[in-house]
């Protein structure tokens, strides 16, 4: 870690001193000058810095000190980042909590981390947290809540909040009233003080895993862990962002994934702070297409599920085009992907720039027109999808990581991608493959351990090596190839071991299939079966069977799906069958559909 900032808050205040009144965060709010319309409103570095320091003063008055835990329960917004900075500036530990958690999840997390103070966005979320941590009686460890929205003024009408012994304070009370004390601070001086007072190996954050396999575990990350990952990500991204023959490319991030997830916290918050970039907070998944056109970002982090959704939209739009347009579309993909693997023929060299004008430029406009990197992480992106988007001129950088690695381990660069891989290990990260194929990782990014769980820590960290639980190999040039998640591997009774991610990725390319989870036959264990959510109620069993047959042509004999179950119950975050970053919760899906799966 070579950055002069030894901790995250000192990095922020260092950049605030450099950028002053330049905009940092943008959020869409009602426009007072235009009735019934909304506009992007900017928050300057100075404003964010002053609010963060004001909140730090309030937290100190509430008794928060170094090493204490403070929870953040909020959707993406500038206040989330301000809370994160303010907590860490005390030397306290920021605890990331998903807004989609059930009261039972909140009970587990707040009990486990012992947070006495929480910063929560809305009345609705306050009620859910309080229902979890109090059971309607006392606050347990939780004594104070700072609420971002004014809706908490209605707390008198909420029986759960009124009954609890928790003290509530509005953001305006906690922050706005304090700002005049800090508006004229010299941020460089504060950055220097923080560098001296907060050791780089002290804890910065506890991030609770999204629980694909059970109760969430608190992953302890130090300032060194996160900063080392930010610096390595910057080294990868900067050549891509700065590559222009005639002008400086703006550094604009569109943030959509939850900041409570380590992936977005590192790549969507602290990386843009390090790069002095701008961050726009997307409104929702339903507005992503519109936000892309409005913001015109240069960088965005996504998960494979969003690529699948974009693929589905493009496929539907293509169905309405002429035969010639379809041929040009697929020729553009073919030529672009041939370029990544070798030399083009003379005919393709002539066709390539024309296809760029006719096809790729139009597709780029859908993403705002100046995207330099769409970083895919959180789960495996199929090679077919990566080649599809890359072939259309969209610079997909598939990466790999996990929260225990703060989180990025490796990533492809659009300048030299190998789309069937997850790229080379980041600068400062060492990867080796164990005898059983498990990927082991070492570096400054590897977590401190699991909070209150020394047994799990000892099982996962082995002499400084992180046991990822993933299976893979390094190719001859050092690119990492992921085969599967160790615990997700399907074992057939005939001895074959298969990757569900590969099979599901291929099935997901069929327009009739919205979601899929594959499994070994519960009756015989001799073949692969699939639980399928159709893309539309209009698709019947014969049409789904035809879609599976098409996918099976690209799969090996053991991988072919022999039988399937249809369900109209989608896998969603709200029903608990997907994590907040849109990964399948296989154990819960299996439990939910146990009866149906048990008959195959």
Topology readout:
Elements: H1 8-19, E1 23-30, E2 38-44, H2 45-61, E3 69-73, H3 78-89, E4 93-97, H4 103-113, E5 117-120, H5 123-134, E6 144-147, H6 159-163, E7 167-170, H7 171-174, H8 187-197, E8 203-208, E9 218-222, H9 223-241, E10 252-255, H10 262-274, E11 278-281, H11 288-295, E12 299-302, H12 304-319, H13 323-341, H14 346-366, E13 373-376, H15 383-391, E14 396-401, E15 408-411, E16 424-425, E17 429-433, E18 438-443, E19 449-450, H16 454-460, E20 461-462, E21 465-474, E22 480-485, E23 490-491, E24 497-498, H17 500-507, E25 513-520, E26 528-534, H18 541-552, E27 561-566, H19 586-592, H20 594-597
Parallel strand pairs: 1-11, 3-4, 3-5, 4-8, 5-6, 6-7, 10-11, 10-12, 12-13, 13-14, 26-27
Antiparallel strand pairs: 1-2, 8-9, 9-19, 14-15, 15-16, 17-18, 18-21, 20-21, 21-22, 23-24, 25-26
């Amino acid at each position: 870690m070579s950055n002069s900032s030894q901790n995250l808050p000192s990095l922020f205040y260092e950049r605030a001193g450099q950028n002053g009144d330049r905009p940092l965060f943008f959020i869409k709010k009602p426009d007072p000058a235009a009735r019934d319309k909304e506009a992007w409103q900017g928050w300057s570095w100075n404003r964010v810095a002053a609010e963060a320091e004001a909140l730090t003063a309030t937290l100190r008055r509430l008794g928060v000190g170094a090493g204490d835990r403070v929870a953040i329960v909020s959707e993406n917004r500038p206040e989330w980042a301000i809370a994160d900075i303010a907590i860490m500036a005390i030397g306290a530990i920021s605890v990331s909590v998903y807004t989609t958690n059930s009261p039972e999840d909140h009970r587990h997390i707040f009990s486990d981390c012992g947070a006495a103070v929480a910063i929560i966005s809305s009345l609705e979320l306050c009620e859910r947290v309080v229902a979890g941590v109090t059971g309607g009686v006392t606050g347990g460890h939780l004594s104070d809540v700072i609420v971002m929205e004014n809706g908490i003024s209605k707390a008198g009408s909420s029986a759960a909040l009124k009954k609890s012994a928790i003290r509530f304070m509005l953001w305006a009370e906690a922050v706005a009233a304090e700002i005049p004390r800090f508006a004229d601070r010299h941020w460089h001086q504060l950055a220097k003080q923080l560098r001296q007072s907060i050791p780089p190996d002290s804890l910065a954050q506890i991030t609770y895993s999204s629980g694909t396999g059970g109760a969430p575990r608190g992953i302890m990350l130090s300032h060194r862990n996160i900063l080392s990952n930010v610096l390595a990500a910057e080294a990868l991204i900067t050549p891509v962002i700065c590559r222009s023959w005639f002008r400086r490319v703006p550094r604009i991030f569109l943030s959509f994934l939850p900041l409570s997830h380590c992936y977005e916290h590192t790549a969507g918050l602290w990386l843009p702070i390090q790069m002095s970039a701008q961050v726009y907070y997307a409104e929702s998944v339903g507005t992503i297409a519109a936000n892309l056109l409005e913001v015109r970002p240069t960088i965005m982090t996504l998960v494979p599920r969003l690529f699948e959704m974009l693929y589905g939209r493009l496929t539907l739009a293509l169905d309405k085009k002429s035969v010639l347009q379809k041929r040009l579309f697929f020729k553009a993909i073919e030529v672009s992907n041939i370029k990544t693997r070798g030399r083009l023929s003379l005919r393709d060299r002539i066709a390539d720039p024309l296809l760029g004008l006719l096809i790729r430029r139009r597709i780029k406009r859908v993403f705002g027109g100046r995207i330099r990197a769409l970083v895919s992480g959180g789960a495996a992106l199929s090679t077919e999808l990566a080649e599809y988007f890359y072939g259309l001129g969209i610079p997909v950088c598939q990466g790999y990581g996990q929260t225990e690695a703060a989180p990025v381990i490796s990533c492809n660069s659009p300048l030299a991608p190998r789309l069937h891989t997850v790229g080379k290990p980041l600068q400062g990260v060492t990867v080796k493959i164990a005898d059983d194929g498990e990927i082991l990782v070492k570096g400054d990014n590897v977590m401190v351990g699991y909070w209150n769980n020394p047994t799990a820590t000892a099982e996962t960290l082995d002499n400084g090596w992180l046991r990822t639980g993933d299976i893979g190999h390094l190719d001859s040039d050092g690119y990492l190839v992921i085969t599967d998640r160790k615990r997700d591997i399907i074992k057939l009774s005939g001895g074959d071991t298969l990757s569900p991610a590969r099979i599901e990725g291929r099935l997901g390319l069929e327009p009739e299939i919205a979601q899929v989870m594959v499994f070994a036959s519960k009756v015989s264990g001799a073949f692969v079966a699939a639980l399928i959510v159709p893309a539309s109620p209009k698709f019947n069993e014969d049409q789904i069977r035809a879609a599976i047959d098409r996918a099976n042509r690209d799969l090996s004999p053991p991988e072919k799906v022999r039988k399937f179950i249809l369900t109209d119950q989608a896998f969603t975050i709200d029903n608990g069958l997907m994590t907040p970053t849109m990964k399948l919760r296989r154990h819960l899906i299996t439990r939910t559909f146990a009866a149906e799966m048990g008959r195959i």
